[in-house]
Design brief:
TIM Barrel; 5-stranded parallel beta sheet; 3-stranded parallel beta sheet
Length: 212
């Protein structure tokens, strides 16, 4: 899971409530060269969307986002999710995911949370909300005391085409969270061609970035 995320450098984070839209979206991402997606559990159809994407596009790495409760872990696995993500660090949820065999990426914002995550054995972490929490400067500061541990971050929150490349250039960043690639307006307008174009541009933007 980690290797595939690092290879692509982008994790599109989507809120989708219609199964047909989820499938068209996955197809558009694949057409752009991206085979990783995080479907957030923010509506009743999310688990069905995960299941259908997995069944229809078996080569796509599908994660479940906004995993907040312990019972959601087993539901994610039943839906076919291959990894889980949360906006914050809930030790009970992380431990449940680990026990169930679901790779998990908890969210952190502070040094204390980073250390709590490392204590749980989590070395791939979501940095959220990235821009509000200090953005690139904060990640550069975190790199000082924690880079040697092997920890890597996926920043999300305020990331867009204008700053994604700068985030991706940081050695401590594994990938960037890309909600702009799967914007709700694109889904509402069924503009799958534009989504594919955005994906291609984003992949070119973050590929082979020289580290600061």
């Amino acid at each position: 899971m980690t290797a595939r995320i690092i290879q692509k450098r982008i994790v599109p984070v989507v809120v989708v409530s219609r199964v047909d839209d989820a499938l068209r979206m996955a197809e558009a991402l694949l057409a752009g060269g991206l085979d990783v997606i995080e479907v957030t559990l923010r509506n009743p159809e999310a688990e069905t969307c995960i299941r259908r994407i997995r069944n229809t596009f078996p080569d796509v790495l599908v994660g479940a986002g906004t995993v907040l409760e312990v019972d959601q872990v087993s539901r994610c696995l039943e839906a076919g999710a291959q990894f889980g993500v949360s906006p914050g660090l809930n030790e009970t949820v992380v431990e449940k995911a680990q026990a169930a065999g679901l790779p998990f990426i908890p969210g952190v914002m502070t040094p204390s949370e980073v250390e709590r995550a490392l204590r749980l054995g989590c070395k791939l972490l979501k940095f959220f909300p990235a821009e509000a929490a200090g953005g690139i400067k904060m990640l550069q500061s975190l790199a000082g005391p924690y880079m040697h541990t092997g920890v890597k971050f996926i920043p999300l929150g305020g990331i867009h085409a204008g700053n994604a490349g700068a985030y991706a250039a940081l050695p401590i960043v594994a990938a960037v969270g890309g909600s702009w690639l799967v914007d709700r307006k694109l889904i509402e307008d069924q503009d799958w061609g534009q989504m594919t174009r955005l994906v291609k541009e984003a992949l070119a933007l973050v590929a082979n970035r020289e580290h600061f």
